[in-house]
Amino acid sequence: TQTEKNGHKHFMAKEIAEQPIVIADAIRSYLPSGGDQVVLPGADLDFTKLDRLTMVACGTAFYACLTAKYWFEQLAQMPVEVDIASEFRYREPPITGRTMALFVSQSGETADTLAALRYCEGKADKIVSVVNVPESSIARESDIALPIHAGVEIGVASTKAFTCQLSVLLMMALKAAADRGTLTDDELADHYAALRGLPTVMNAALDQNPAIKTSAQRLSEARDVLFLGRGLMYPLAMEGALKLKEISYVHAEGYASGELKHGPIALIDKNMPVVVMAPRDTVFDKTVSNMQEVMARKGKVILVSDDDGIAEAEDGVWSIIRMPHVHSSLTPILYSVPAQLLAYHTAVAKGTDVDQPRNLAKSVTVE
Ligand code: G6P
């Protein structure tokens, strides 16, 4: 059942393993089998009537929003702003034009996110939330509440809720692209087919668990770890770093690969593991040259990539995590698996309390 570990050592391990199933549920409920369009459950939303999107969240949900910004901009050509709820609510940002305010929250009870939503009432054209708990305050106070179907999440560090949030946000972006005519029918059909195949590919990523565990052993000996990514992998680099610090207490930072030169490169030496998230995509070559800058300074690179990327770039890397090939828009969902498992195995190796890390709460209902 949802509230037992079902043979896993920790809830987090169980929730990571459950992702192919819950993502399949989420995909089925927005992309009905046999259908050829995204249907937002219970929501009559026309993206041609909206000009911009303001997304607000905290923690892991914030990184889901940052990822979605790339999707809404690239696929649907919609301008998007993303903010942390605690900053947004006090800045008094003007909300102009035809704006959708979109709040992402696993619990639906995070105090800052709820306050940000209330700030948008009467200002935004539509208040929409993407939540895991349909009865939550954030869901109730939204015009439209879209469920992510992750099921109960008990581990304090969010895993399956994150990938379900991403899946739902991607399907929203595809709905926006279809409404606004920014993708062709063939392009849309490619995305839908790739989404329907995602649970199978997620299983293949989970099969890499032994290799990820070996790399994590190395991380557990580090004091600081840097995560690098470009494009869609940049928010995931930050999420990977967040996961690692939350549960293993190893200091980690996520950086855009292109910003390496503007600061973090000063930290690189032989003691610094650098996790490079880099599927063989359109920005791959640039990321590889950043990775070489790390290796030239004796930094220890853990490369997470697919067969093509590994064949091109494996020379000199310290450790390799091989991911299956997937449609380029799905890489943040797929590459979440190694990000989560690296943090998980590092924490297990260090003997920390994986499901209940010190000082953290599952849901922050006070400011
Ligand atoms: C806490 C949790 C995080 C979560 C964040 C936002 O910090 O420990 O895992 O991402 O709150 O929570 P929400 O329920 O709004 O997604």
From TrEMBL:
Keywords: Aminotransferase, Cytoplasm, Glutamine amidotransferase, Repeat, Transferase. Residues 43-182, 215-357 form the SIS domain. It comes from the Bacteria. Its main location: cytoplasm. It is found in: Cytoplasm. Its EC number is 2.6.1.16. It catalyses: D-fructose 6-phosphate + L-glutamine = D-glucosamine 6-phosphate + L-glutamate. GO terms for biological process: amino sugar biosynthetic process; carbohydrate metabolic process; fructose 6-phosphate metabolic process; protein N-linked glycosylation; UDP-N-acetylglucosamine metabolic process. The active site is at 362 (for fru-6p isomerization activity). The keyword Secreted does not apply. GO terms for molecular function: carbohydrate derivative binding; glutamine-fructose-6-phosphate transaminase (isomerizing) activity. One of its GO terms (cellular component) is cytosol. It is an enzyme of class 2 (transferase). Transmembrane segments: none annotated. Homodimer. Catalyzes the first step in hexosamine metabolism, converting fructose-6P into glucosamine-6P using glutamine as a nitrogen source. This is Glutamine--fructose-6-phosphate aminotransferase [isomerizing]. It comes from Ruegeria atlantica. The chain holds residues 241 to 607 of 607 of the full protein.
